[in-house]
Design a protein that fits this description.
two-stranded antiparallel sheet
Length: 330
């Protein structure tokens, strides 16, 4: 191994999505030697291949269930993961079985890989780790995750961070890590209105970015009832109205617009087809996650719906980069 390789890290990113862990490491100024990515979502893979398809040091491993940690134990310096939150999140009213749920139980497949890497790594190596998942999980699931990881990482810490400290959108997450010198980031003061290409909003921070949004027909009612989804208003006067007045006036605005939903194809992301509000564009969604504007937007062959889903499942890059800063002196 030459000196340059010693100065960089070999990284294993499980449930890698669109490789935001790589973006965060680069933002933190940390050199990457090899980046092993485990992902199976077709849209996420298209985005990965667009950026890294010609990079021999970006290595796709496929399904987490098929990875043998023993084959990687000599190499890996850092394991990063955001295991599926589907059955852990409070936003899922149908199947909230936690770590026993169909998708969230994949945590245990990842845990097996980490145990194998840790158990058989060279004694001179220090294995670093970072895991992210929803802060709305039940305490019993948080305790299970923590206890399983403490068996491997005696210096494990658990932080709760709302991405709104560094981003224009809320995203409350737990982070399990043994990276040293951890701190909660200082607020950056970036607001929802700061990232808009046009229009107006009625709140300082956007809601959590989910894999879907409310509709452009009557979604405004669900938006306020459940406090989900993100919308941008055409007129400042309407944005400044109290909620009750918005909901009272909106049906007439919708009717006058003639918009009836999917029968009209929306080609202008910044247009107001219902003459009242629109969804954020892919660039604006990316800004919510502190991801570069065109990282997802410029990729061909992936629908807006799938791009939004990929962004909704991603890391908030600036938050993870802040945590990775603790590796710079190690």
């Amino acid at each position: 191994m030459n000196q340059n390789e010693k100065e960089g890290l070999n990284v294993l990113s499980l449930f890698d999505g669109i490789s935001c862990a790589k973006l965060a490491l680069e933002k933190a100024g940390i050199k990457i030697n090899k980046y092993y990515s485990s992902e199976i979502d077709k849209s996420a893979l298209k985005i990965q291949n667009h950026h890294y398809g010609n990079d021999p040091n970006f290595i796709q491993l496929g399904d987490v269930k098929d990875i043998d940690g023993l084959e990687l134990c000599d190499e890996i310096d850092l394991v990063v993961m955001g295991s599926p939150c589907t059955n852990l999140s409070s936003i899922n009213p149908i199947d909230r079985r936690g770590l026993e749920g169909t998708e969230s139980k994949l945590f245990y497949d990842a845990l097996k890989i980490i145990r194998e890497i840790y158990a058989f790594q060279p004694s001179s190596k220090k294995l670093y780790f970072l895991m992210e998942n929803v802060a709305s999980m039940k305490n019993i699931d948080k305790e299970k995750i923590t206890n399983e990881l403490l068996v491997i990482f005696k210096d494990l810490k658990v932080l709760k961070i709302d991405s709104a400290l560094l981003a224009p959108a809320h995203r409350r997450r737990f982070y399990w890590t043994n990276i040293p010198n951890l701190t909660i980031p200082e607020p950056k003061g970036l607001n929802y209105s700061d990232i808009l290409d046009n229009g107006y909003v009625d709140r300082k921070k956007a809601n959590v970015l989910l894999s879907g949004n409310v509709t452009l027909t009557n979604g405004i009612f669900r938006h306020f009832k459940m406090n989900i989804g993100n919308i941008i208003y055409k007129d400042k006067d309407f944005a400044d109205l109290p909620v009750e007045e918005k909901l009272l006036r909106y049906p007439q605005i919708l009717e006058k617009s003639g918009y009836i939903g999917k029968s009209r194809v929306i080609t202008d992301e910044l247009g107001f087809s219902n003459n009242c509000y629109r969804h954020p564009s892919i660039k604006e969604y990316s800004r919510m996650m502190t991801i570069p504007d065109d990282y997802v937007n410029e990729v061909l062959g992936v629908s807006k719906t799938d791009k939004q889903k990929a962004l909704g499942l991603a890391f908030t890059v600036d938050v993870v980069a802040h945590l990775f800063n603790g590796l710079n002196n190690n």
